[in-house]
Amino acid sequence: MSISALLQQYHCANGTWDEMCHTGEIRDHYHKVVTALQKLDVNILQQKDLLASELFMNQGITFTVYSDNAGIERIFPFDIIPRIITGAEWAHIEAGIKQRLKALNLFLKDIYSDQQILKDKVIPAALIASCPHYTREVFGIKVPYDIYVHISGIDLIRGDDGKFYILEDNLRTPSGVSYMLENREVTKRIFPDMLAANKVRLVHNYPLMLHQILLSLAPTQISSPTVVLLTPGIFNSAYYEHTYLARQMGIALVEGRDLVVDNHKVYMKTTNGLEQVHVIYRRIDDEFLDPLVFKTNSVLGVPGLMSAYRKGNVALVNAVGNGVADDKAVYAYVPDMIKYYLNEDPILPNVPTYELSNADARQYVFENIQNMVVKRTNQSGGYGMVMGNTVSETDWLKAKAEIEADPRSFIAQPIIKLSTVPCFIDGKFQPRHVDLRPYALCGPNGVQIVPGGLTRVALREGSLVVNSSQGGGSKDTWIID
User: Is the pTM of this model over 0.85?
Assistant: First the structure.
């Protein structure tokens, strides 16, 4: 069968925004790619699909599924058909993310100092006090340039109205950027001519941009500050990414045991003795960073690290305590933060969110659960999520009891039919739901966003869950003009 015939068999679901097709016609920004694909034979496309899998296998591009008893290491699924976003759409996304990060940084500075937003009752004080990731230990600490969120992965979805919505703010240790970069490298191998023909914007300079920001955060004015990447080790789900980024930036990859604190300064153990470390890009959660301050049984962190941080002798990226800003219950108030700190309307709207600690909201959600998705406020990776349209009665009764026992730990949102894009699955073009995680870097000179980001794909037919831990994959994201 020819590619043209496969494209004719591509059917979009009713009530869903498909990014390639509209009323049976190919959208303008997909024309060049579709034309190029039509010149290929299906067998050639299957060979390219197989080559992509082999490239991922040979590169060892993996992620970890902790709940999988069969074996935790998996090759990251990759779909070869690119997702295409126009330059005009990207400009809108970029402006919205920059605005959001500006407000979130101001919120974090405020919440760990004057707390004016609480005094003005824009956000309930009880919401912050009950947040498990509000870190009182860092109250009053001055961070370089008042930047708390240096690296973020803001999750966006596109609804059935074609508009982009912010789904989630990842402000602690966002992952996935290595997959974005590797996706592009694999695409270069399998479609070398299509990238140039479509004038796709480049993403390869992300490690350079990140390295420059890390260097700029060094607390002392020295010519060559030492930057390290602190990893929990080989059993972490994102360890591949840790090694990849350290290698790309040319910095040391260290574990907690490789660092030591002396006289409120952090040093790295080397064959030439101790070397002072000025900036730590940490991929360890707050509670494991320093056993003298947080979890006393943590073997992943560095004893005394927080004393060096408080003295300003080392910069931590991202800042400690950011979790209060990506709590899913606090997420509901980000539009209010934008209005409060910037006196602007949000460029990118939130998904409507119901705090289940509110009795009226809880009752409404319970009565309309078939149209709702319930999420834990401090879970990630798709864990602890209840899809109301597919949950069994037994599972719902169990989830309902958990919600009623601890309503602060849950929010609900209406189920939104994510937009679909074409995927090459089982030798056919099939629509699958996607989200988008652009990566933003915030430094002394402002916010820089790599043009594209990670498109995550729900590979199971009809599924709205895109997380890799729940069977999702990814594809290359093209920003074209």
Answer: yes
